[in-house]
Amino acid sequence: MQESINHITELHESLPGDSLSDFSDRAFKDFNQLGIPKAKHEEWRYVKVSSLFRKDLTYPLHDSGLTIEDLQDHLLPDHDQATTIFFINGIYAPALSMVNHAQDELVLLPLSVAAASTEYADKVKSTLGQSTPYHPDGIHALNAAFSSKGIFIAVPPGKTLARPVYIYQVSDSRKGYTLSQPRTLVHVGAGSSIHLATTYATLGHESFTNEVTEVLVEKDASVYYYKIQDEGAKAHHVGTTSIRQIGKSLTNAVTISLSGGLVRNNLDMIMEAEYGESHMYGLYLLNGNTLVDNHTIVDNAKPHCLSNELYKGILDGHSTGVFNGKIFVRKDAQKTNAYQSNKNILLGDHATVNTKPQLEIFADDVKCSHGCTVGRPDDDALFYLRSRGISEKNARSLLLHAYAVDILDKIQLPALRAHVDELISERLEFNF
Amino acid sequence: MHMLSIKNLQAGLEDKPILKGINLEIKAGEVHAIMGPNGSGKSTLASVLAGRQNFEVTAGSVDFLGKDLLDMAPEERAREGIFLAFQYPVEIPGVSTTNFIKAAVNETRKHRGLEALDAVGFLKMMKEKMKLVQIDQSLLSRSLNEGFSGGEKKRNEIFQMAMLEPKLAILDETDSGLDIDALRIVANGVNQYRNKDNSFLLVTHYQRLLDYIVPDFVHVLYNGRIVKSGTKELALELEEKGYDFIKSEWALAGE
Questions:
Q1: Enclosing domain of residue B7
Q2: Which residues of chain A register pLDDT less than 50?
Q3: Which of A381, A392, A394 has its CB closest to that of B90?
Q4: Beta strands B2-13 and B16-27: pairing type?
Q5: How confident is the model at residue B114, as a pLDDT?
Q6: Between chains, do B75 and A387 touch, taking CB under 8 Å as contact?
Q7: Which positions in chain B touch A283 (Cβ < 8 Å)?
Q8: How many angstroms separate the Cα of A283 from the Cα of each of A137, A268, A289, A321?
Q9: A403 touches chain B (CB under 8 A)
């Protein structure tokens, strides 16, 4: 592990100074102090992230020369209509990216440029690092230490974006095992609405993506966020998405994990205004040795907020699923409604799931509920389908697909929903 | 020729014996009714014939059109022509009724050496059979049985029967929970499907259903055995005297 850390340290020291130097230097100090989380760290019990910092890990901080042709197989549906943003090895690639929104609808800038501009410096300052207090660990700090290669997206007030924004996180690992550390900042103005989808691709060998996305949501705005993970068994991932609602607003997050090596998804909903609403949905469909750990946080600071959370898993092979759902209801957050549910189907004897609700409630007039289930496909339903002449295999596919549809239906972009449905159907051999 | 021939069938749940030696022969075109008090084993018989796996068959044989029925998986039995209308149809959220029936029809057709129906052919068949049980199109575009009323569920069962064209349909307490209008519709659907090639096994607690679907034979199941067989008049006698008379007769016979 030390060799890869030395390599990263050298790279950090060689970074040219820019508008984010103070922020990233501070973060690098934190990283040195906190270190890579060890297995005994309660938050990292299942994700042995230190095992990813191997000797052969490289951190290419330069353009690898990929073209859009190289990426054809990885594009989302309606790619041409969306604003498309590419990161290659964690570095924003403007040459591949394309804004398909009017100038007064969407602003896209390199993060260091936005931080230096008179127009956006304050917005960057108010959002950059909002997730840090929730993730006091070295891996989170390490991303911040290299944040100058990231981007800033702003939606001005009163704009309902009809077209989605797609972010492609590409790891070019054709020459070996790579580290990518993308950073994204999104500011959604009052009364605006955005659909933001992130997807991932690894070319070549093995990859490790350590991503942080921070979204600030103003009054009466809506954010629809989709994270689609299906980049193969050798793609490791630690990602934090932090959505902070500073005015009464709506957020809807859907996390779909279909493959990966060691995968950790942090999703934070920071609810700082009254009458906020946030929905968090997840589907993990795992096999092989994939481990997916979904850590969610809902932090209610103000009264009358609603949060609703449903994560569903289907686990086969030697795969492992982890769900950890934290809900904080602070003293002033009276009349909070917070619901949480995690459901799992284990298909094999060697698949595992670890699920843990974690509610900390300091207000006395709230409604909070949580529940988790681990089971098998329902025998009565299987028999019913088979008694109609449907083979056991097809009956199982029908039931598992039906189980996943709940979450699929939360994807409100029809083309994206159909695309994910195709991926899931292929996996479940569902063809009806 | 016998369609179904059950000989000394014994089956139970875990270590508890429920069927204690059933003998029954059904010929093509016949309608048999199995009646009996609660707990006598009526529904177990229906489940065992359809292949529900939680019941263990401990002795006996079941021959269906020359094949060993007990040796077949539930889906094979269905494709060979057995249909069970469930007493409690299962609700399956997320599975569209239409997709489900299409999958069932086409897997069954494939087994019978017929080509899969295309969308047009399937819709035509659906429309035809929907009339049989007066089932509404909107019901079929919903998730399978989800939120259906009791009557809608039972009608959906008979609709599926009509779509799958079985040789032997087993109706497990299809009359339970139905009001008189729904009962008439369901019975009418069955009667239209009744012909010299198809047989029925009606499992029921009450005589009421048999006013609408008139059986050729009535059997009384008690304590895991058929203790009395007769024609439709036997059902009327049961209705009049109640099951107690069977129980006392049986007790006198020394069981």
A1: 2-252
A2: none
A3: A381
A4: antiparallel
A5: 94
A6: yes
A7: none
A8: 26, 17, 17, 11
A9: yes
Instruction: Note the pLDDT of residue A207.
Output: 98
Q: Is the Cβ of A398 closer than 8 Å to some Cβ of chain B?
A: yes
Nearest residue on chain B to A399, alpha-carbon basis? B95
- For chain B, how many structural domains are there in total? 1
Three-state secondary structure of chain A: CHHHHHHHHHHHHCCCCCCCHHHHHHHHHHHHHHCCCCCCCHHHCCCCHHHHCCCCCECCCCCCCCCHHHHHHHCCCCHHHCEEEEEECCEECCCCCECCCCCCCCEEEEHHHHHHCCCCHHHHHHHCCCCHHHCCCHHHHHHHHCHHHCEEEEECCCCECCCCEEEEEEEEECCCCEEECCEEEEEECCCCEEEEEEEEEEEECCEEEEEEEEEEECCCCEEEEEEEECCCCCEEEEEEEEEEECCCCEEEEEEEECCCCEEEEEEEEEECCCCCEEEEEEEEEECCCCEEEEEEEEEECCCCCEEEEEEEEEECCCCEEEEEEEEEECCCCCCCEEEEEEEEEECCCCCEEEEEEEEEECCCCCEEEEEEEEECCCHHHHHHHHCCCCCHHHHHHHHHHHHHHHHHCCCCCHHHHHHHHHHHHHHCCCCC
Question: With bands split at pLDDT 50, 70 and 90, how would you rate the model's confidence at B253?
Answer: low
Burial label for A190, CB within 10 Å (0-12, 13-18, 19+), is middle
Nearest to B78 among A378, A387, A406 (CB): A387
B88 CB-contact burial (10 Å; exposed 0-12 / middle 13-18 / buried 19+): middle
Scanning every residue of chain A, which has its alpha carbon at the shortest distance from the alpha carbon of B157? A388
Domain ranges, ordered by start, for chain A: 2-273
How far is the C-alpha of B198 from the C-alpha of B189, rounded, in Å?
14
Nearest to A145 by CA among A90, A207, A216: A90
Show the tokens assigned to A136: 């006091």
CATH number, domain of B229, equals 3.40.50.300
> Is B94 in contact with A432 (Cβ distance < 8 A)?
no
Q: What is the pLDDT of residue B136?
A: 87
Q: What is the CA radius of gyration of chain A?
A: 21
Task: Output the pLDDT for position A46.
Answer: 94
Interface predicted TM-score (ipTM) over 0.90? yes
Residue that the structure tokens 């006198």 belong to = B252
Evaluate whether B213 touches B200 at the Cβ level (below 8 Å). Answer: yes
| Structure token digits, residue B121 | 């052919």
Both tokens of A367, joined, read: 């409604």
Count other Cβ atoms within 10 Å, centred on residue B144. Answer: 27
- Rounded to a whole number of angstroms, the distance between the first and last alpha carbons of chain B is 34
pLDDT at B97 over 90: yes
Q: Which residue of B has its CA nearest to A377?
A: B92
B252 pLDDT above the threshold of 70: no
- Which of B74, B79, B93 minimises the CB distance to A383? B74
